[in-house]
Amino acid sequence: MALLKQLSADMITAMKNRDKETLAVVRMLKAAVQNAQIEAGHGLTPDEEVAVMSREYKQRKESLTEFEKAGCQDLVDKTNAELKIVAKYMPKQLSEDDVLKIVNDTIAQVGATSMKDFGKVMGAVMPKVKGQADGKVVNQAVKKALSNK
């Protein structure tokens, strides 16, 4: 619930400042949280809130990639601005070194020895970095660590 209150407060601030871009993004985020709440049938837990924000962030990241490929600079700029706003509501992201350390610790815990254990390692790592690291970064770190075995 804390996220919903924060989004409402930020929406009011954006209205007062006449910041249309921020207002639009915050409204979309608030709607996404409310929709998730309706689907769940109860107030969202902090983990569920992080999942919603992660999904919104990931959608914008994917859009950014497509806009860059298409050469639409105006949409790239707009999406970058949206990403900065969404990032404010995300947990602090782990660095690649931090992710690699978690991956190596997990490999030792599950006893992974080759690329055949990739799924087992990914399954163990993802809950540890939930919302704090992109799945692609984790995927690359696991491949890198297992290829060195």
From TrEMBL:
Top-level taxon of the source organism: Bacteria
Single Gene Ontology MF annotation: carbon-nitrogen ligase activity, with glutamine as amido-N-donor
Matches recorded under InterPro entries: Asn/Gln_tRNA_amidoTrase-B-like, GatB_Yqey_C_2, YqeY/Aim41, YqeY/Aim41_N
Record Pfam families: YqeY
Protein name: YqeY-like protein
Organism: Limosilactobacillus panis DSM 6035
